Amino acid sequence: MTWKGIVDRSFTAADFDTYCKGLTWAAWRPSFIVLHNTAIPSLAQRPDGLAQQHILSLEAFYRDTQGWSGGPHLFVDDRQIWAFTPLTVPGVHSPSWNQVAIGIEMLGDYAVESFTDGRGLAVQANAVAAMATLCEVLGLQPSGVRLHREDPKTTHKCPGKNVDKAAVIQAVEAKIASHAAEHDPAANGGG
Q1: Burial class (CB in 10 A: 0-12, 13-18, 19+), 11
Q2: What angle do CA 174, 157, 141 make, to 5 degrees?
């Protein structure tokens, strides 16, 4: 397979929003987002989050070891959002949904690590911000977010039992509402 390349750039949530608003989805337009977790490495194994060398090692793993054409679209940790496979082309992350969905990998093992406090909560906040941006830019409904374990061709419990889908969707909806309020002068007492 021909390797699609990687973006190899990290963003804050605000910078990721700006980045996505500058992209054009012409040849491929995803229908929903699939949420994953890395499991290995866990948060404990990456106490400083993901560095560029980790991203380059992941590229080598997907391209050279797995022989895939790409990987997930994003890697999210407690500090940043890494763009991996270009968002405007299909990635490789979920057997049933590679051709129709954006794949987001969250650093952590949420079968055992917390997703609702500490570093896990910071990962969640960055993932929610990324999903909110993608929903807004692509016109996707947050309710369409799927967990990797929901893929009928997947056998593992990704992104872990500590990730509550309903709570994630609610957080994405709240983030989108806060974006709308920020851009609506009437909601802020103006106009």
Answers
A1: buried
A2: 30
Rounded Cα gap, residues 122 and 76, in angstroms: 10
Residue 1 belongs to a domain:
no
List strand residue ranges (DSSP E) for 31-133, in order: 32-37, 74-76, 81-83, 101-106
Question: Which three-class secondary structure state does DSSP give residue 5?
Answer: coil
Whole-prediction pTM: 0.94
What is the Cα–Cα distance from 159 to 111, expressed in whole angstroms? 8
Bond preceding residue 159 cis, omega within 30 of 0: yes
Q: Please enumerate in sequence order all residues whose Cβ is within 8 A of that of 181, keeping only pairs 6 or more positions apart, or say none.
A: 187, 188
Under 8 Å between Cβ of 38 and 108? yes
- Residue 189, in any domain of the structure: no
d(CA 43, CA 48): 9
For residue 149, what are the domain limits?
9-184
pLDDT in tens, 47-93: 999 999 999 999 999 999 999 999 999 999 999 999 999 999 999 99
